User: Fold these one by one.
Assistant:
Number 1:
Amino acid sequence: MKIKDLVNESDFADLGLKGLGSELDKDDDYDPAKDGFSMVDQLGKVLDSRGNPNPLDSVKTRDGSEIKITADQAASLMRLLKRETVNGTDRQEKEKFSKDITTKTGLTPFLDANDGKSMQQMYVQNYMSDTTKMALQNKSRM
């Protein structure tokens, strides 16, 4: 018998807690990789297909819609999804945005924007807290 087998069989394996708190090991955060649906992957495929004879021009939403999208729109959304976070609040805001644009009602307003700058302004207005805005300003000053 190996030492790791002895440790796993003994009371030392869970320090006598019998699994207490194991429910906390589960992440409640939204993770598109867990269910096989990823807007980032779809946007990446649209961007990668630029220059192909038949480029991809649509994405599927979680609610079953297929929505037309241009490469420029995909690039603007990808920039918002992939930008570096500046604090914990910003990370939560990005996760909410990421989850929201997987539905038709969340994605359509961004696609209706004229350009990437309008999308960015919409993101700042709808998702960014004052705390995150201040953190971004302080980061840009450095």
Number 2:
Amino acid sequence: MRRTAIVALVLTLSLTSPLVAQGPAPPPHAWLFGAWIGGIFPPPVTLGAQECLAQPMVIFTRDAVMRAVMTSPAYAQRLIDSARATANGFEVRLIPRQSAADPTFGCPNPDVLPVQRRGDNEITFPGCTDFPFPLIRCATH
């Protein structure tokens, strides 16, 4: 009798719960996804979305961080090993560099990119000499 009641309860609960597919949770650095301008120079005060997206300084994706390099028209890319949220931003661990020619951000540890969130659309890379100024998110509209 007791087993029957438990089975009935489990079946009832399973049939009443919504059958919504749960996608994987976004990574902790999902907030960073997109194009950012500034960092190397102070961010512009007024800049349209089209101009900003034409030449962003940093681009974050799920798997990579790309940065503009002053001596090359191509973006330098570093693959992301892991990311974790911190009290005031994110710590992005990059796949270790294979050679000294691999790009860095001028941070004390070349394979860790500390990101400090300063507002809804502003970040900094504290301690990273290649990016002494804040970056602002490029608007998409």
